[in-house]
Amino acid sequence: MKYTYFNGIPNEEVLMGIQGLHQHVFEGAEIEVSELQEKSQLLCCVALEEGSVAGFKLGYELETGEFYSWLGGVHMDYRGQGIATHLMELQHKIVKEKGYETIRTIGRNHRRAMLILNIKYGFNVIETFTSKKGTHKIVLEKAL
Known about the structure:
Blueprint: E1 2-7, H1 12-25, H2 33-37, E2 43-49, E3 52-63, E4 66-74, H3 83-97, E5 102-107, H4 112-120, E6 124-130, E7 136-143
Domain N-acetyltransferase: 1-144
Pfam families: Acetyltransf_1 (PF00583)
InterPro entries: Acyl_CoA_acyltransferase, GNAT_dom
C-alpha cells in the first residue's frame, strides 16, 4: 500500500478513484469537482494499491488555524488493515506541519468505527446537532 497526498485536486486518475470510492462508501452519493474547487486549502490523502484508490481522506481549511477533516473512506475489500488510521495520521501530520492548531470533524452514530477511531486518536465530542435532513451529527475536535 502506498500513501500519498495532494494539495488541491489530484490528477484525473486519482480523482476518478476517489469519486468512485466515495460512491461505494456513501451509498451512491456523488462528489463533484466543483464542490472540491470551493474548498480552501483542500488536502487529499490517499491509499493506493497498484494504482487504485483503496482509501481516501479529504479536508480543508475552515478558518485560520482550524482544519476540517471532511470526508473519507476505505473500500470494503481493504477494511481492517489500518488504512483509515494511516490516512488519519498522514492528514494530521501534514496539517500540523502547515501550522494548523485544531482539527475538527463531524460524524454520525451509525458510522461507529470512524467515531471510535476519532476518539482513540484524541478527538473530543464538542457538540451534537440534527441536520436539515434530520440526521443526528456528532462534532469532534482535536488540538494538534
